[in-house]
């Protein structure tokens, strides 16, 4: 009986301790890992969200850039982090595509994380150096087909959003281009503006300013509807590519085993951030908007991730392009 009583007392004490810990969370700064270089489109989204989340959580959310290996280095670091709610990941569509792009991934994107919530789905734009000849998307498709060995397409590296968009474009039009991988979006954009490469497809968070500044030539956006911040740019479907639609969605993750109480507090802070007028306005400037509220729950996020893994697997396998 004494042993039983002691066990009951210990369990009760543990329960009280856990409850107290949940109430106290967070009691110190939280690290938000971005698996790409600073200054890129995903980093921009993360910093806007982190700043607003810091206010509602009462603790600073510090963005840490851990680039390399197409985003898998940073994601792997979070997968192995202590599941205490103090290390989270903000990743884009690459969290789903890495499951197929990497045949020897040291973690499982679907099972080694706790989904916290979706953030935003950023449209992409097909853009070119200003001197490129075609005037519209049909003309661009014809030009690429006629000059496939000469046309150069830049991307931010294997597994990046720009790489995925380019791969889907080439698959859709049935023509390969000479691809030029870079170590990040910044260097690729610099060479496009400078005329060293011909084409690039990247997120509106990174291209809107360049388009409005007349530094690149826009051909189309990759979403079903035109983008509010770029109303003059037609969609891929308007340009004749009826089945071409892709958006770079972003989500927040915690290591598997993170207490539900911590995940719930992170989700609540994320929801608050996505309703912050400053975040909404800044997203609009960048050509995107927060995900609708019914898509921000951990449960929806997890289901969506699984569906996206299944969606991209046949596309990647058909292309036969792997990152390892």
Give a written overview of the molecule:
- This protein is α/β, with parallel strands linked by helices and 324 residues long.
- 44% of the residues lie in helices and 18% in strands.
- It has helices spanning 2-24, 41-57, 72-79, 94-101, 137-146, 161-173, 185-193, 204-212, 260-274, 277-285, 298-319, and strands spanning 30-34, 61-65, 87-91, 113-128, 152-155, 178-181, 199-203, 217-221, 247-255.
- Helix 6 (161-173) links the parallel strand 5 and strand 6 (178-181).
- The radius of gyration is 22 Å and the shape is globular.
Shape: globular
Number of strands: 9
Indicate the radius of gyration in whole angstroms: 22 Å
Largest sheet: 9 strands, mixed
The parts where pLDDT drops under 50 for at least 5 residues are 13-20
SSE string: HEHEHEHEHEHEHEHEEHHH
The mean pLDDT is 91
Class by SSE composition: alpha/beta
β-strand amount = 15-25%
Count of separate DSSP helical elements:
11
**What gap, in angstroms, lies between the N and C termini?**
59 Å
**Share in helix:** 40-55%
């Amino acid at each position: 009986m004494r042993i039983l009583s002691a066990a009951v007392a210990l369990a009760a004490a543990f329960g009280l301790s856990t409850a107290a810990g949940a109430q106290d969370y967070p009691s110190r700064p939280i690290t938000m890992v971005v698996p790409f270089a600073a200054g890129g489109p995903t980093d921009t989204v993360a910093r806007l969200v982190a700043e607003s989340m810091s206010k509602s959580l009462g603790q600073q959310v510090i963005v840490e850039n851990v680039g390399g290996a197409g985003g898998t280095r940073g994601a792997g670091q979070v997968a192995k982090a202590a599941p205490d709610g103090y290390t989270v990941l903000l990743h884009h569509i690459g969290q789903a595509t890495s499951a197929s792009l990497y045949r020897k991934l040291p973690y499982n994107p679907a099972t080694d994380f706790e989904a916290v919530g979706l953030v935003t789905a950023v449209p992409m734009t097909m853009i070119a150096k200003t001197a490129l000849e075609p005037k519209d998307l049909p003309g661009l498709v014809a030009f690429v087909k006629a000059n496939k060995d000469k046309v150069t397409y830049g991307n931010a590296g294997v597994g990046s959003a720009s790489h995925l968009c380019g791969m889907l474009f080439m698959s859709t039009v049935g023509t390969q281009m000479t691809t030029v991988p870079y170590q990040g979006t910044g260097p690729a954009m610099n060479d496009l503006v400078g005329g060293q490469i011909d084409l690039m497809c990247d997120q509106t968070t990174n291209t809107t300013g360049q388009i409005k500044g007349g530094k690149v030539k826009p051909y189309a956006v990759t979403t079903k509807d035109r983008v509010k911040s770029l109303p003059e740019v037609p969609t891929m479907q308007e340009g004749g590519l009826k089945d071409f639609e892709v958006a770079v969605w972003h989500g927040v993750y915690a290591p598997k085993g993170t207490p539900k109480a911590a995940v719930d507090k992170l989700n609540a802070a994320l929801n608050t951030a996505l309703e912050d007028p400053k975040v909404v306005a800044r997203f609009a400037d960048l050509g995107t908007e927060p995900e609708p509220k019914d898509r921000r729950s951990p449960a929806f996020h997890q289901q969506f991730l699984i569906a996206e893994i299944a969606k991209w697997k046949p596309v990647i396998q058909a292309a036969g392009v792997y990152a390892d």
